[in-house]
């Protein structure tokens, strides 16, 4: 884990609420594994929750790519950061990673949750596994990462709730179409993860969780999730858990 001062290479609006931030972060780019995340300092001074958590969406040489949605104060400030400015970035964080065993992998991303799976897709492909992304959102403008999927040459299926792009419905509708030889990996809103967990489809399922994080490295206990064995820290034991390991 490093706390790097990273130069902003690019920070642009992609579409809808989605932005793409590219940072020069050589140490993090070298070390990061699929499933890990970084904490970016968006406030200086005494702001207690000065950092925000983001998945590393991709690595290009010494640069990391972060896909982020505009949500509140922190991401508003982030969206105004200009090229050549610098941001302090802590990472890579998280010890609970996706498992890459098995020949066929279904990667289900809800909205910007796809950014939590994109590196995994590349890692699995490098291992020679079959990879299919399932990407869903409320409507067309919530599918801003489709261009990334296309440019990277992945096979993918799109879902929108209003039918404005791809199949009409929810990404969770897809599970019964795939036999249990497919390993399922999912990242997105809690409701989506809960639905996948509760479907009891017989698949092996890994979930990448989000939780409000202050420190990001196991100290503040602000991010805990309930498990059958008590509480676990999403930032430290996670963010990826096997579905049976957590109570959502
Ligand atoms: C491990 C992990 C990976 C993430 N990866 C991404 C990503 O790749 N792209 C992306 O757009 N978002 C990602 N998020 C969510 C992102 O951290 C929040 O959207 C962001 O913190 C919102 O900050 P804000 O100040 O704009 O929003 P506000 O709502 O103003 O934030 C107020 C507080 O709530 C926290 N918060 C709000 N929403 C979330 C959330 N969904 N998860 C965790 N904390 C939240 C903030 O950190 C802050 O402390 C991830 C979260 C986690 C935990
Ligand atoms: S965010 Fe502090 S323990 Fe997880």
Characterization of the model:
The protein has helices at residues 26-31, 73-79, 118-126, 146-151, 190-198, and strands spanning 2-15, 18-24, 37-41, 51-55, 58-60, 63-69, 86-93, 104-110, 130-137, 155-160, 167-168, 182-187, 205-208, 224-227, 230-233, 240-242. With 248 residues, it is mainly β. It has two domains: 2-93, Translation factors (Elongation Factor Tu (Ef-tu), domain 3), CATH 2.40.30.10; 104-208, 3-Layer(aba) Sandwich (Rossmann fold), CATH 3.40.50. The longest helix is centred in the middle third of the chain and has 9 residues, at 118-126. It is globular, with a radius of gyration of 17 Å. The mean pLDDT is 95. Bound molecules: flavin-adenine dinucleotide (FAD) and FE2/S2 (inorganic) cluster. FE2/S2 (inorganic) cluster (FES) binds next to loops.
Q: How would you sum up this structure in a few lines?
A:
The protein has 248 residues and is mainly beta.
Layout of strands and helices, then pairs:
Blueprint: E1 2-15, E2 18-24, H1 26-31, E3 37-41, E4 51-55, E5 58-60, E6 63-69, H2 73-79, E7 86-93, E8 104-110, H3 118-126, E9 130-137, H4 146-151, E10 155-160, E11 167-168, E12 182-187, H5 190-198, E13 205-208, E14 224-227, E15 230-233, E16 240-242
Parallel strand pairs: 8-9, 8-12, 9-10, 10-11, 12-13
Antiparallel strand pairs: 1-2, 1-7, 2-6, 3-4, 3-7, 5-6, 13-16, 14-15
This protein binds flavin-adenine dinucleotide and FE2/S2 (inorganic) cluster (FES).
């Amino acid at each position: 884990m490093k706390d790097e001062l990273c130069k902003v290479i690019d920070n642009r609006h992609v579409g809808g609420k989605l932005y793409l931030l590219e940072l020069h972060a050589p140490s993090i780019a070298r070390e990061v594994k699929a499933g890990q995340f970084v904490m970016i300092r968006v406030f200086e001074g005494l702001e207690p929750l000065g950092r925000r958590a983001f998945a590393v969406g991709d690595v290009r040489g010494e640069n990391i790519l972060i896909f982020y949605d505009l949500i509140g104060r922190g991401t508003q400030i982030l969206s105004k950061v200009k090229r050549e400015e610098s941001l302090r970035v802590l990472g890579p964080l998280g010890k609970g990673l996706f498992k890459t065993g098995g020949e066929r992998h279904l990667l289900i991303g809800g909205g910007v949750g796809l950014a939590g799976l994109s590196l995994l897709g590349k890692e699995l492909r490098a291992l020679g596994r079959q990879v299919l992304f399932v990407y869903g959102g409320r409507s067309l403008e919530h599918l801003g990462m489709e261009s990334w999927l296309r440019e990277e040459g992945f096979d993918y299926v799109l879902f929108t709730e209003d039918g404005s792009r791809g199949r009409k419905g929810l990404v969770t509708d897809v599970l019964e179409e795939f036999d249990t030889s497919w390993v399922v990996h999912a990242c997105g809103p809690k409701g989506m993860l809960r639905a996948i967990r509760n479907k009891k489809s017989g698949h092996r399922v890994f979930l990448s969780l989000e939780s409000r994080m202050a420190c990001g490295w196991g100290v503040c206990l602000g991010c805990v999730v309930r498990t059958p064995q008590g509480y676990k820290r999403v930032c430290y034991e996670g963010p990826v858990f096997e579905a049976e390991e957590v109570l959502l």
